[in-house]
Amino acid sequence: MNDEHKSLPHVATSKKISIFGATGVVGQKSVETAYFAGHDIVVITGHKNHAELIRQANKYNPQYVCCTDADCYRKVKSEVNGSEVLPGDEVMNVAKLDIDCCIMAISGLASLAPTFACLGHANRLAIASKEAILLGGETLIDSARSRHTELIPLDSEHNAIFRCVKHDHRHSVTEVILTASGGAFLNHTEDALKSVTLSDALQNPNWAMGAKVTVDSATLINKATEIIEAALLFDLPINMVKYVVHPESIIHGIVRFCDNSYKALLSQPDMMIPIMYAINYPELQQCYTSTPLAFTAIGQLTFRTQQVWQERNVNLAYDVFNDGKVIAFTIANEIAVSRFLDGSVMFCEIYDLVVRMLNMCDRELAHSYDDITELTRHYIERFTKV
Questions:
Q1: Domain map (residue ranges) of the chain
Q2: Are 82 and 58 contacting, i.e. CB atoms less than 8 angstroms apart?
């Protein structure tokens, strides 16, 4: 970053920030955002990317650096002097530090435990970890509320809905509409999907994301998960949450109110905007990476009717939510995508594999964190044999 960014106006009060999953795409952006906004980065955590953890530790000087991979821990510990470097078994302890804002950017199932651990210790949980929301469900939402940890979503779509609705308008909401870029295969027919490669699937047209999330964007199963997340985060009947394919990714979320007026949030597709908002809320602060929208240059914003395979994939959201199989769906998709990433299945087989796993399951009964972790272990063991 240029030195000129350091002179940007800071928020009135510096906050203590912890960032879990600091080496991922959202995590790296979160570290940069917190630093240039003038906040105190207390904790960063990572898994295997030792080079990025070392870079962050030496540049941003957090109090603690936690590595959940043993080899990463040894390498980071040998090259970082200004921070206390901790092994993976300390991750739950650093999650329980008293913090103003905990940013949860860990991808996958590993996000669940530290997410629950930070509740009651962090004043605010800014959460980008889809799996933690999906697995945690109402238990997570209720626990955050009872332990007085404010929950603000980091995903651009849910962050946009949060900004449009706020608390004072929620009773007037008639419909929530999430937007989808359409991913790498926006214009592909179902037959064309049979020949796509992993390299093809990892080419998102608008967003820089990790491999798992990018594949989910290509299948549009990410939109299914986001529909479920929206229903949980905003306490809405799931049939009130819809989506529209919007290739430009300029509109991030739309809310329809009871008088048939609409409110939408528009911006460049830049994750720093929702991260800055989540950290500083209710204040706003200048975002140095994003430029204003040039509407005449954009010309027009377009919306597409989804193809049959896209609609089928997204409609999994309504089926699994109403059938009470959200945890099974989350694990099934995680396993199916991992098999695509390692070359075990083709792209067009991801949906079929997820459905096959779901058909093995009954309605879930999970009322506590222990219930959730037990179900998660059960599904992982069962689905790995499929």
A1: 3-154+271-280, 156-269+292-321, 324-386
A2: yes
Do the Cβ atoms of 280 and 318 come closer than 8 Å?
Answer: no
- Looking only at the bridges linking them, the beta strands covering 251-257 and 241-245 are unpaired
Q: Give pLDDT tens digits for 70-99.
A: 999 999 999 998 999 999 999 999 999 999
The pTM score is 0.94
Residue 27: helix, strand or coil by DSSP? helix
Q: d(Cα 311, Cα 220) in Å, to the nearest integer?
A: 9
Neighbours of 370 (CB within 10 A): 9
Token pair recorded at residue 337: 């995508």
Half-sphere exposure of 352 (CA within 13 A, CB side): 8
Rounded to 5 degrees, φ, ψ at 42 are -90, -40
Task: Report the distance separating Cα 368 and Cα 125, nearest Å.
Answer: 19
What is the DSSP code string of 97-115?
S-EEEEEE---SGGGHHHH
109 touches 131 (CB < 8 A): yes
Alpha-carbon distances of 27 from 121, 124, 129, 334, rounded to whole Å = 20, 16, 11, 20
Location of structure tokens 């203590």: 16
For the domain made up of 3-154+271-280, the CATH class stated in words is: alpha beta
Alpha helices, DSSP H only, in the chain?
25-36, 50-60, 70-79, 91-95, 112-118, 130-146, 156-165, 198-201, 211-219, 221-233, 272-280, 295-298, 308-314, 316-323, 326-341, 350-358, 369-383
Note the pLDDT tens digit of each residue in 46-78: 999 999 999 999 999 999 999 999 999 999 999
- The C-alpha atoms of residue 294 and residue 33 are separated, in whole angstroms, by 24
The DSSP H or E segment spanning 45 is strand 40-46
Tokens 């529909």, residue? 227
First to last CA, the chain: 47
DSSP letter at 224?
Answer: H
Q: Give the separation between CA 180 and CA 250, rounded to whole angstroms.
A: 10
Contact of 245 with 304, CB cutoff 8 Å = yes
pLDDT value of position 206:
72
pLDDT band at residue 3 under the 50/70/90 scheme = very low
